[in-house]
Amino acid sequence: MIYISKAQLFLSVSLMAAAIPAIAAENKSKEPPVGSAAPTAMTVSPAAVNPVASPAGKVAASATTKLNNNPDQDMTEVLIRKINKGSGDIVLRSSDLPPPFPAPKADVKPEVKPEVKVEKKAEAKPKDPPKAEPILITVKEELIATPMIIPEIPWTYADGPAGPENWVNLKKENQLCGKGKMQSPININFDNTVKGSLSPIVFEYRPFFLSLMDNGRTVEVIGAEGNNITLNEKQYRLVGFDFHKPSEAAFNGERAEMSVQLVHQHFDGSKVIVEVMLSSSPKLFEAAKRSWWDSTPKENGLFQVILNNVPLVKNQVASPRDVAINPQQLLPEDRTYFTYMGSLTEPPCTEGVAWIVMKTPVLVSAQQVHSFGQIYNNNVRPLQIKGDRIIKEAR
Fold it and tell me: What pLDDT sits at residue 116?
């Protein structure tokens, strides 16, 4: 704290007032030429500094811009304000002075803040639009009626679920087996036939190598090219022939011991089946008081070759080496016949089949009949209703 009397203060102010014009002149000489940027100097009036020159006895300070960084001027202004406030001793405190403006230090470098590295966040890739999830439909199993798969039952000649009476129930294709009106075999009654002159059947059979199989229902011989028949100027190829015990057709209500059926087919699909009775006894036609026997029954050579080569495994074709047969050996010398329109005698019981039943049997031995009976003893379909069909007999 600084104590100054009014006399001392008056003397100091007077001295400073005398010095101010000289300082102002000196500062003016130092002003830069016009056009240069220089600080502006403030001119102080002696009346403003000298308290006596003021009519009120007080010093009026000019509100001009202070000299740049001038502590004397600051002190002067503070003293003038103190004098104007009152009498007595004047006390100057450090807080009355304006804070000094620190001069910049020449060699001090501005503080450099350490560079703060900001890690760039990885750019988030745009997410793929969510895929539409498949709609799952859960259905309770008990609500679904699973069709029952019934295994196919092979048809048979024996009585039972797959027997002849139930063939119609085994497949849809077998409807004619139960509902057909022209089914085979039938009974041929000699008194109910239409007798007339019928076109002769031309048999064009020749030897071929034997191929046969046991198909689980009969013994079947596979036909060969070049074996045909001609009926009503229409040719049919021999597809094959098979054997049945007893015969399928019946004469006057009686069946022969056996029969062979020779199946022929035209290229348009139509079929002709020739059935020949096989018998070792003349009793077959005693009811009709007719006999075709001119010699004692004896063994049939072709039938024996077939019996010798029946395969040991079912449904497997056997072709014995260098074994040839001629179907002519299964035909009687008398070629007269009965004929009617019928069907297949096995499923699907297709109708529209022309049947030729030879009137004269072919002789075979009792041993041959017995041997075949060891393979199939009853492989025939029951007799079917004749209905209003016409049976013709050749004279």
Answer: 54
Q: Where in the chain is the domain with CATH 3.10.200.10?
A: 164-394
The C-alpha atoms of residue 297 and residue 288 are separated, in whole angstroms, by: 20
Classify 75 as helix, strand or coil.
helix
Contact present, 205 and 221 (Cβ < 8 Å): no
Summarize pLDDT for 132-142 with one digit per residue, the tens: 666 655 555 55
Give mean pLDDT, residues 245-251: 97
- Nearest residue to 185 (alpha-carbon basis) of 338, 343, 391, 376: 343
Angle between helices 301-308 and 366-373 (to 10 degrees): 30
pLDDT value, residue 65: 43
* Token pair recorded at residue 87: 């009498």
Residue with tokens 């597809």: 239
The tens digit of pLDDT for each residue in 117-130 reads: 555 555 555 566 66
Domain 164-394 matching CATH 3.10.200.10: the answer reads: yes
Q: What is the C-alpha separation between 162 and 155, in angstroms, rounded?
A: 5
What single letter denotes the amino acid at residue 382? P
**pLDDT on residue 231:** 95
- Three-state secondary-structure class, residue 368: helix
Rounded to 5 degrees, what are φ and ψ at 2? Answer: -120, 125
249 Ramachandran zone, left/alpha/beta (phi>0; psi -120 to 50): beta
Distance from the Cα of residue 371 to its chain's centroid: 57
Query: Could you please report the per-residue DSSP string of 249-271?
Result: SEETTEE-SEEEEEEEE-TTS-E
Angle between helices 6-29 and 71-85 (to 10 degrees): 140
Question: What pTM was computed for the model?
Answer: 0.62
Cα-flanking dihedrals φ and ψ of residue 368, to 5°?
-65, -40
Per-residue pLDDT tens over the stretch 208-217:
999 999 999 9
